[in-house]
Every structure is written in C-alpha cells, then in structure tokens.
Amino acid sequence: MIIILKQNAPEQRVQALIDDVKQQGMTVHYSQGAETTILGLIGDTSRVDEDKLRANDVVFDVRRISEPYKAANRRFHPMDTHISVGGHTIGEGFFHVLAGPCSVESEEQLLTVAQSVKASGATFLRGGAFKPRTSPYSFQGLEADGLALLREARKITGLPIVTEIMSEAQLDEFEDVDILQVGARNMQNFRLLKALGRTNKPVLLKRGLSATVEEWLMSAEYIMAGGNENVILCERGVRTFETMIRNNLDISAVPLLKSHSHLPVIIDPSHAAGIAWMVEPLARAAIAAGADGLMIEVHNNPKAALCDGAQSLDLDQFANLMKEVRRRTEFEGKSAD
Amino acid sequence: MIIILKQNAPEQRVQALIDDVKQQGMTVHYSQGAETTILGLIGDTSRVDEDKLRANDVVFDVRRISEPYKAANRRFHPMDTHISVGGHTIGEGFFHVLAGPCSVESEEQLLTVAQSVKASGATFLRGGAFKPRTSPYSFQGLEADGLALLREARKITGLPIVTEIMSEAQLDEFEDVDILQVGARNMQNFRLLKALGRTNKPVLLKRGLSATVEEWLMSAEYIMAGGNENVILCERGVRTFETMIRNNLDISAVPLLKSHSHLPVIIDPSHAAGIAWMVEPLARAAIAAGADGLMIEVHNNPKAALCDGAQSLDLDQFANLMKEVRRRTEFEGKSAD
Amino acid sequence: MIIILKQNAPEQRVQALIDDVKQQGMTVHYSQGAETTILGLIGDTSRVDEDKLRANDVVFDVRRISEPYKAANRRFHPMDTHISVGGHTIGEGFFHVLAGPCSVESEEQLLTVAQSVKASGATFLRGGAFKPRTSPYSFQGLEADGLALLREARKITGLPIVTEIMSEAQLDEFEDVDILQVGARNMQNFRLLKALGRTNKPVLLKRGLSATVEEWLMSAEYIMAGGNENVILCERGVRTFETMIRNNLDISAVPLLKSHSHLPVIIDPSHAAGIAWMVEPLARAAIAAGADGLMIEVHNNPKAALCDGAQSLDLDQFANLMKEVRRRTEFEGKSAD
Amino acid sequence: MIIILKQNAPEQRVQALIDDVKQQGMTVHYSQGAETTILGLIGDTSRVDEDKLRANDVVFDVRRISEPYKAANRRFHPMDTHISVGGHTIGEGFFHVLAGPCSVESEEQLLTVAQSVKASGATFLRGGAFKPRTSPYSFQGLEADGLALLREARKITGLPIVTEIMSEAQLDEFEDVDILQVGARNMQNFRLLKALGRTNKPVLLKRGLSATVEEWLMSAEYIMAGGNENVILCERGVRTFETMIRNNLDISAVPLLKSHSHLPVIIDPSHAAGIAWMVEPLARAAIAAGADGLMIEVHNNPKAALCDGAQSLDLDQFANLMKEVRRRTEFEGKSAD
C-alpha cells in the first residue's frame, strides 16, 4: 500500500501517521521526492483501513498495491481448492452440472426433474425452497416442505442437493443440505456470511448484480476468515445498460477469478440470459473459458413453472445440452469426478 | 398488463391461458388483429407473475402497463405519507436532518457529536452500532455497546435515534430504536424486510447500489404488504462507470419517487460522493429537487474516524452546512416540524 | 407497435391520431377495453417515430413489438450474409483472424508483424494509421504514411488490410483499403455511417462503449439503408462498473446478434480485457459462443509499442494462440475459407 | 505519476526504463523498499503514455497522481473562464438559459418559439438543423435550410444561436453560428474536436452517454490544445441500469467540474430525463448545485414535434419555468449578464 502525502504536510503530523501505521504491524518505507512524499507500507495490509487513511488530512491519496483479500488469494494459496461433497470433487480439472427447477413445486415435479437430470448426467440437484422474489406478491417457495422434498429426492436419486439459504437464522434448518447457496441479493449480507464461516459446509456464493470481482472475493473472504474454506464462486450475470437480456454474463470473470483466486468457479447461464435458447451458447463459452461447472434451471413443464419459466430448459432440452456439454468437457480434458 | 400472442397460436392453448388468467381474478379483453392478437388483462395485476406468462409458449411478449407495487403507489394512495416519530413528522412539507457519526466509537465521541449536531439544528441522531463493511478485517462496529451508547445519547440530548439493523434476528435488540435503517446491501434481504413488515417501527430503506427505482419501491412494498406503512426512502447514490467519486447521487430519484409514491424521501449526500467537500453542493441540490430531509455523516475528528472519515464533516463544517440548509429550506417553505 | 391511449381521451383527438398514423402507411387496429384502449399498428413500423407518438397527449405509452431495424434484421433476411473480400469469405461457417499492431509505427515493425502473423495463420492484417486516442498528447498515428506502409505490407504478404477511418472526409484516402473499420467512439458518427453507406466497401463496425445491441444494429442499419450491405459487427467489450479490467466482453452479444441479425460477428478480445494474458481465454469463449472471427493485437515488441502495448501479444504468443484457435475452430467445423 | 516495479526486475532493464522516461523530460525519483521499488515521475506527466509504461515487463503498475488534462485543469488555471458571445458572458457568476426546439421544422415554428422564449427570458436560441438520430429512418433535420432559418430567427429576435455540428467538413457552413454544439455521440469524434480547436468559436461540448468526467475533460483538452479555450461543458445525463427514465442526470458533475476545471458548466435537464414534467425539478437542482446555465427544449406544439416531443416544454410551461429560474438564480445571486 502506498500513501501519497500532501505537499507541505507538517512533519509532526506525518510522524504521527507513521507511528499509527507501525502500531498496526506495518513497516513503513519513507521516500521524499522533490514534490511528492510517499509512504510505502510493507506487511499484511489486508487489515489496513483505506478509508481511515484517506480521512487523514496530511494524506493526498492511498493506493493499494496488493489485494485486500488474503484467504481467497491465489498469491498466498497457489494450489487450486478442491471441495469434496456428496462423493464428488468440485474444482479445477473437474466439471459438474448442478441442475433442477428454479423452485421446488411438488413431489411429482421435483422427482420427475431429479431423475431425468440425473439420467442426463447432472451430478447435483438444485432447487429453491425459500425463494427471494422481487415482489412480495410472487410465489415465495414451499419453504420447509420444499426442503423436505429435496431431501426425499436426494434419497431416491442419490444426487447431493444445493439450495438457497436466506438468513443465518435458518442454519439449523439447512443442517443436512449438501451445498448452501447464497443468492446474488445476499452476497453482502454479512451476518449470513459470518454465520456460514462458522460452519464447514460448502457454500455456493453467487455474485451480486453489480458487485466487482474484488467485492465478490471479499465476500468469500468473510466466509473463509471464519474458518470455512469451502467456497464455490458462481457467476450469474451482471447488471448493465443492456435491455435485450436480463443480465450480461461476465465471461471475463472466469479467467480473472482463476488467476486471482484458487476457488472453484461455476457459471449459471440460465439466470444470466433469462432466456432458454441462450443457455447453450453461454454454456459452451463457459466451458471454453475454463469454468469448473454449470448451474442450469430445468423444469418438466417450463410453461407452468411457478418461477423463471422463461429461462428453464425442459427435460429433453437439458438432455441435449448435456450431450453437448460432455462433448466439450471431454475436449477440455475434464470430467465429473 | 398486455399479453401479445404468437402468430398462429393454437386456439385451444390460448383459451387455456385465458382461463388461467381469469382464475387469478383478472378480466381478459381479447383483441384479434390481422397479424397480432393481444390479451388485455384488467384488474389487480400486481399479483400476476410476468415470468410465468412469458414461459407460456403461445406468448410472444408481456408488457406491464401499471406498476407492480400497490401499497407504495401514489395512484392508489394520493395523499403524502407523514410519519410521526420522536415528536417529529417526516414527509412532504417538512425537512429533517439526521446527523451523526458513521459508527459509534466511544461515549465521548458520540455525546460530543450528538450535542453538537443538535445545537446546529439536526433533529435526529444517526450512528452505526453494527456496521456492514466490505472487508471482514475492517472495524465491524461496537455492536450491543454501540446501541447502548445511542440510547444514552438520546436520553441526554432528546434526539431520536436512527441505526442500521442487519438481520431479522436482531429485532428484539433494536426494539426501542426510533428509526430502523436498512442498508443498501440489504435492500433485497427479503427475510429482513418481511420481519420489519410485521412491526410498526419507522424504517429508513436505503436504495441498493444498482437497484432501479421500481425494485426499490418493491422492497418498500415488502415492508408495507406486511402491514407496516412507516417507510422512509433514502437515496445514497448508485453505481455507475464513473471512477472519480464513489457513487453517483441520482437526483432524478427525488421527483420520480414523489410522483410515483407517497412515501417520504431522504437524501444521503455523504455516502453518495464519499468526499466531505461535495456534501454541501449535493445537499443544496437535494433540497431544491424536493427531498424531505438529509442524512449527514458528522464526526468530531474525521481524520481519526474508524469508518468513512473521508466523507464525514467535522462539527464546524456541519454547523456551517446547517446554516445553508436553513436558509434554503426556508426558501422552499419547509421546516423541521 | 402498440399505442396505449390515456383513459378518457377525447374521441376527436384519437381519430386525428389514427388518421395521422394511417397516412404513414400503417393499418390501425382499434381495440377498446373497459379501462384501456389500444391501437395496434400493422405495417412497416421501422419508419414510425416513437418519440413523436409519445408526445401526443392522448397517448399513455408506446410499445414496439417488432425491431426498429430492417435491413440488418434476420426476420427479413433469414440467410446469413457472407462478405467476399481479398479472396476470403467472412460470415457464418468460416473463421478468420485479423491480426496486427494497434498502430503502424515503422516499416520494419509492420512488415515483421505482418509476415509473422501470416505465417501463424492470420488471414487479414490490421493496423491503425489514424488513431483515436483519449488524450490529445498521445501518439495520434503515422496517418497517411501509416496507410502507405499498410499498402506495402499487403503487397508483400498478400494479406488484405483493415484500418480505422475516422471521418467521411477521409473516404478517398481510404479508397483501396480492404475493410474500413469504424471505431467504438464513432459508432454513432452518423455522417460517417451515411458516407460509408454510399460505398460498397466492407465495413467493420465496432460496438460503442455502452451501446445496446439494438443501437449497434441501428448503426449497421444506417450503412445498409444507404445500399452497402457489407457490414461486419465487432464486439470489443462494454463499459460497466468493474475496475479490474478495461471493458467487459459481452459474450451474450454473439448469440443475440446471430439470432436477430444475419451479419457476421467478430470478437476483439484484446480491447475487451486490455491485458495480454486474458486474450486466449476470451478467444476460446468467443469461438465456442459462435463468433465468425477474432481481431487480435500483435506487436513484435509490445513493451515498446506506441499504443496498447499492455494488451498486445508478441509474435510467439500469437503463434501459440493460433495453434489453440485452429484446434478449436476445427472442433467447431469451421475454417478460414 | 508513480511506477511500481516488479519484484526482482533486472537492474539493467530498470535503468533503461528510467532513461526512457528522462528523455521525455521527466525527473525520476527512485525509491527502493524492502519489497517494493517505486519510481516517482516529476514534471509534466500529461504527455506520458500510461499504456506504454504498463506494457514494459518490469512494470507492475502505474498510478497517475496528477490529472492527464492541463489546459482544462483548474490547478493550472485557477481563474474561472468567462466566454463572451453575442453580447453575453457565460461562466461562473452568470446564469443563461439556452432554449428552443429540438429540431428546426419551419419558419413559423422557429420564429414563434424564438420570440416566445426571448419574452420569457432565454438569452440564447437553440435548435437543431442537422440531427443525429438513432434510426436512419427518423427525421434527420432540415439541414442547410434549418441553418438559414436559425440565422433569420437571430436577426429578428437578436438571440445568438446554438446548433449542433456533426463533422469537421461542416465548419465553413457553420461559420457564423454563435455557439457550436458537439453532441454526446460525437464527444470523442477527435477529428471534429481537433478542427474546432483550430477555430476560436465557442464550443458547447456535451458529455458522452457513458463518458467519465475525466474523459470529458480530455475531450475539452483536445479543443483547447489546439488553441481554442472557449469551451462550455454541458451535462445531459448518463447511461445507467435505470429504465424508468432515459438518462440519469449526474448532478455530482457540477461540483466535480467546478473543482477540477475552470470551464463553464451548463445542464440540459430535457435530455437527461426525457420527460417534460421532470425538467423543472432537475433545473432547480442544477441551479442549486452551482451550474452556470440551462439548455431547455421548447416547442410551440410538442405533440407534433418531429423529435423529442415528449421532453419538450410548450411555450407556457417554459414561461412558468423561467419565473422559477429567475426566483432561484436571484437567490443564488446570479443573473444573465
């Protein structure tokens, strides 16, 4: 971290700043130029508060050189993280497809979809029991009954389950869920992130609608700082000015995350585009860019789906997608386990 | 709501769609043109799920004519909402300044700031006890101790207090807080919104970093649908491509909200710009645009503030700002009560 | 196009509106519901001015059903456009790589790069002679001398050349350029677009930094409406809130354009990311998503490049990229001609 | 400017970099820390090419401390720029309203509007002769005939005229126009900016749809670097994710520009919102934030306007707006001359 001082900053005030930084465990490298004086902070700057430095009136500007995240940083953890869950390994070199309905609607719906996606090659069953909906008047999910149906589907198909948790108050209720999903709207629900950090459950952390990659990794850091290193990052499109599609899949996020972090990266093309026919081309791009998996919405009868029907594949469309996914992950030298 | 049908949609399927919509309590107006057939839905469409309609394969497109929010909608509630809290009235025609430190740091700090902002004309004391910070390594607030200090400051100064609640699990702890603030990152924490809807506490709902005005009003609707109509909207800048400032204050939101909703609108220029010297010009713009109040960060020693120091005014700067605010709110014919 | 009328609109005024629309060659389908009256416009609505309709005070809202572009619209031109240029065919089923330096700097530089990229498999030589730079103090290109060097490089290598035109006043000077590039900042320089429409030269139209896909196609429409159908669309990243990279490659644009238009689509991963090491993963994604080609910045000595050095590949990196490109385009069943 | 070197950069390569920078007239301040080595560049860094430095493989990062614009920079020109045009002075301390139709449509329309806005207090007549329209099928303006009508209106009313120039090829034709407007879509049409820099005509430079404040000032710098210092900046709303209005007026731009530059700042609330009823509240905010003037679209019959009717005020609405403007500019202590 570099602190650029204001011109003519009183020496005494500068010394006080240096002392303050040293007390935070930093070494300070003082460098006085003809017009600009710079303090170079050496040490673990992830705990240094930029805002506080900026407020000091001898400070002209503060520039971070190293990233503010540490546990999630590949620089400090060069090896790829592999997460073992439900008999599978998620991470670099493997490729998993998490499929299922946007929301669990009935026993028949869920079992039909679960058995079909398993037959087509999905290795995880996703499905929403508690649904974060923009409108209070939209279907909010089957809640506890939905969780029970997911457990039943897991029992019958053997597929581990992924479902969204919306509050730290639900942790007990989600005890036996295989992967806890944090939705885009809760990416910075820090109470929830901290609570998840105190467990050792795999967490699928979706990117916020307009979160930078760094903010996203800082949310992963919240979970990891608590001791839980089982974090899977899931890109699901970001908000831009474009109106023709719901969100813009940020394909650059895959190489950026793979370079800056060691955590697994999953792509959700269903939410990104919001249109069923775009799922396949985006899935192809995700595989080629280096993603470790896909999250796909599948419904046995999309036109009657209680949520996100427009972006859900039907069972046949999903089976066809999986053929293409297999052909391409083989080309990349990856497989499900 | 208008449903545009696909060309050559089978009559039987269209009839099924019409029946389905009618069962939701809508009247359907069928209109067949040479090339386009349109269904006009008449009734309370706020409960109709657009996504579900879109997924129906006889549907080409769905267009909403009326807004999806109802309780927050001026069309159905033409009179301005006035909220009585702590002996004050918040809403159209009045103007309040909510001032205080970003975070409560100590008894001395809080009391010094509280007494000073009161003397300068603030009518509410704001201060964070539980702080949502991007980094897990940043100061997270004094938590319960911070709340206790806020209560003490209220007792001494008589200023009602505003502080941020981060989870529905904290509701009991915040029982006697005068205005519960929902932060930008929690604007779509629907569990929290629903819980707040079951109380009758005034809620200051900050706009999410990239929430549309409609999404914001839908979050207000979550609280109001639960029975709590005491919602104050707080604009605090939105995320754009601009890098010179932290957020872009969306001044258009003031007339938009005043036109589409009856709820009070407050502006937070401190968070919008993130720079202390910009607080005053943005505050002037907010007053002129028709806002009902301001939320301002004030610290007795900004350069030592544990959070947001760069955007905090010191006590003198705030006193000067208030002179300007008074001069201008008088011009607009508004006062604090 | 659907016009939704205001409630209680005076009959006479509505009739005047209907007459006005009919005079523009439209058929009008009048549909009166209990609460909403709708006019359905049937015919070629691409020439109807939405803004003008909206300004009519009996109009509540106007919604387009069909796209405002026509010549660029796949609905009216279902067959893919194939552009013959320099002995090659650009369009669906083929895959071309346009490579070369950001700016032409010297004879030695250009010939070295041209011969090397040809040997590696590029089929077009790109290079800037006139450079649009954000700062007036940055290198502005060799201008006419740069064009002369491009012609020389074409003569020696046989590679057709692609270079940027910045004004309609330059058309004569660019007479023998094989593909005229319109840069992102000029995507809505309508004088230039109209002038290009009066030629029959292939035009590579880059997407504006924050242009929607529809606006981009409308700019293509400007060229095509003038009679020149040889338009190639080039996605080069859009502006978002992300700060870690220069632009976000909009991979969704590939399937969107392929679905809505018949024009060839090229991806420029060099400008999108602005970082050399990200070119390859983005190129892989582009191929998989269905792009018809790539535009790549290559320099014999990137660290001395007069522009965009940070995103340029050196000759070896480009050779390696091309091996990967070939392996992947073969997988997709595409080749350069 | 600070250059942060990579760890273990070979000494010889670093020395070559230092020599290169010195040859550009910079003084270099070398500062070696335990882990980070930093070069501080002192001198006129506005001509230093960041991209080129970044491409050097011993460079880890480059951070600008001073702004890349110089002629437009208040640091180097502390006094406010005042532009004399048509008997008026534009700049800090004054307040002008530039009003008129989006496009010149007929002699009767233009003269009616011109005489009326003059009577209401406007000091400049605006009107488009050459119109940049998104669609090639929309009305493109009366072109040369429109210019002739503007000259006639000036002769009759005495109001100086403001109209948009779209290409450097039009300079002669616009010879006697009082203020040349550069539209948002041409903000980075560098050929046009350079040509305007060679004249001494006042230029009203609109901000690009998603241009940062710095990029905007760099475009002003293009004109000023050529010798023409008569640049007026015009904010007209930026593109965001919001869909309820056309553009988001960036009110923060006023204090930012006033602080970083000495150039006059005008606000165009008509284009920002795109809705007539929002013009007044945005105009009020602009005045309070410190703008030096307003640009307002006025039409004698908005519902029949050939462009932008929805956002145009009619003659009475404009007269009422001007009463409010006068009341408020008096409060700010400003007047038209």
| Average pLDDT of chain A | 93
CATH superfamily of the largest domain in chain A: Aldolase class I
Q: Work out the oligomeric state of the chains in this entry.
A: homotetramer
Q: How many strand units of chain A?
A: 14
Largest inter-chain interface?
A: C-D, 51 and 50 residues
User: Into how many domains do the coordinates of chain A divide?
Assistant: 2
CATH topology of the largest domain in chain A: TIM Barrel
Percent strand of chain A equals 15-25%
At the first level of CATH, the class of the largest domain in chain A is: Alpha Beta
Summarize the SSE layout with pairings.
Four copies of one chain form a homotetramer.
Chain A: E1 2-5, H1 11-23, E2 27-32, E3 37-42, H2 50-55, E4 59-63, E5 83-85, E6 88-90, E7 96-100, H3 107-120, E8 124-126, H4 144-157, E9 161-164, E10 179-182, H5 190-197, E11 203-206, H6 213-225, E12 231-235, H7 253-260, E13 265-267, H8 269-273, H9 279-289, E14 293-297, H10 315-332
Helix pairs in contact in A: 3-4, 3-10, 5-6, 9-10
How would you summarize what this structure contains?
Four copies of one chain form a homotetramer. With about 325 residues, chain A is an alpha/beta fold.
Descriptive report:
4 copies of one chain form a homotetramer. Helices cover 33% and strands 18% of the residues of chain A. With 337 residues, chain A is an alpha/beta fold. Chain A has 2 domains: 2-63, 2-Layer Sandwich (Alpha-Beta Plaits), CATH 3.30.70.1140; 83-332, TIM Barrel. In chain A, strand 5 (83-85) and strand 6 (88-90) form a beta hairpin. In chain A, helix 3 packs parallel to helix 10 (315-332) and helix 5 crosses helix 6 (213-225). The mean pLDDT of chain A is 93. Chains in contact: A-B, A-C, A-D, B-C, B-D, C-D. Chains C and D meet through helix 2, helix 5 and helix 6 of C and helix 2, helix 5 and helix 6 of D.
